[in-house]
Design goal:
heterodimer; A: F1FO ATP Synthase; 0% strand; elongated; B: mainly alpha; two-stranded antiparallel ribbon
Chain lengths: 74, 251
């Protein structure tokens, strides 16, 4: 296999990290919504925590994207 | 990274190319005034003009412009109060500057044909490194060497310490990276995706052009949300890191 082809395959594989980020973000928003429907009055107080959780879950996926970018352009 | 990409109209990466406007060199370093610098200066001028104009009248009952400035202030003050408590007051000007600077840069980037400064990792990393260094210095000034206890959580069995302490140290050291990569990757990925779908509108046959155009229009709205959300998250995490430094784990 040519090195160039292996680079592209590797970059594609690194993007698999975004699967986990997708699951994580879906989990966070889904659980927030089900919690908010049970107790709507407590929901606004947890909105900041929701966004922090979203940001932390997203960051792990973006690390994978960063690896892909480093492979492609680094 | 961007320099390696061949510049061309249809290239989704061409929008991130840095162009020298006024080439300058100092002691062998390239300190040219680029389009990136231009947009940072533009953001600075816009923020200054907006805030000075809004607060010029200082009316007790605020007008429209003054209310927008006051609600921006109150929004950031709320984040600082919520995360840092009363101790956060002296960090407020700094946190407010970070928030409004990132927000303005993100929003300027949403103007078609403009340049998104925050889509470059070097800019976001400089901001995140500043946050991390300030938080660490504040921590050591406040607590001295006791600050290192941040890496030793309470209530962990002693035999778990060899595992927990390295994890805590790594998670502390990775903070500037995760903070900068989050902002940079969000801005870069979003803008690239918009460009890719705009490219589909050019290349697809006549009737099918409508789909990518509609998608791009809808996604531009989402990008505005992401622009705001990332500025907000950067600010919240700055406050959380500062809170670790000021209060450590106890409250």
């Amino acid at each position: 296999m040519e090195a160039e082809a292996a680079k592209f395959i590797g970059a594609g594989l690194a993007c698999f990290a975004l699967i986990g980020a997708g699951i994580g973000i879906g989990n966070i928003f889904g659980n927030y919504l089900s919690g908010a429907l049970r107790n709507p009055s407590a929901a606004p107080g947890q909105f900041t925590n929701l966004l922090i959780g979203f940001a932390l879950a997203e960051a792990t996926g973006l690390f994978g994207l960063l690896i892909a970018l480093i492979i492609l352009f680094g | 990274m961007v320099n390696l990409v061949v510049a061309g109209a249809a290239d989704p990466m061409a929008q991130f190319a840095i162009k020298r406007i006024i080439p300058l060199e100092l002691f062998g370093y390239d300190i040219s005034f680029t389009n990136s610098s231009l947009f940072m200066v533009l953001a600075l001028v816009l923020i200054s003009v907006y805030l000075i104009a809004a607060m010029n009248s200082r009316a007790l009952v605020p007008g429209r412009l003054q209310s927008t400035a006051e609600s921006t202030y109150e929004f950031v003050a709320g984040i600082v109060r919520e995360n840092l408590g009363e101790d956060g007051k002296k960090f407020f000007p700094w946190v407010f500057t970070i928030f409004i600077f990132i927000l303005t840069l993100n929003m300027l980037g949403m103007i078609p044909g403009s340049f998104t400064v925050t889509s470059h990792i070097i800019v976001t990393f400089a901001l995140a490194a500043m946050v991390w260094v300030v938080a660490t210095i504040v921590g050591f000034v406040r607590h001295g060497t006791h600050y290192l206890k941040l890496f030793v959580p309470d209530g962990v069995p002693i035999w778990l310490m060899p595992l927990i302490v390295p994890i805590e140290i790594v998670s502390y050291l990775i903070r500037p990276i995760s903070l900068s990569v989050r902002l940079f990757a969000n801005m870069m990925a979003g803008h690239t995706m918009l460009k890719v779908f705009a490219g589909f509108a050019v290349s697809l046959p006549f009737v099918a052009k409508a789909l990518p155009v509609l998608f791009t229009a809808a996604f531009t709205g989402l990008e505005f949300l992401v622009s705001f959300l990332q500025a907000f998250i950067f600010t919240v995490l700055t406050c959380i890191y500062l809170n670790d430094a000021v209060h450590m784990h106890d409250h």
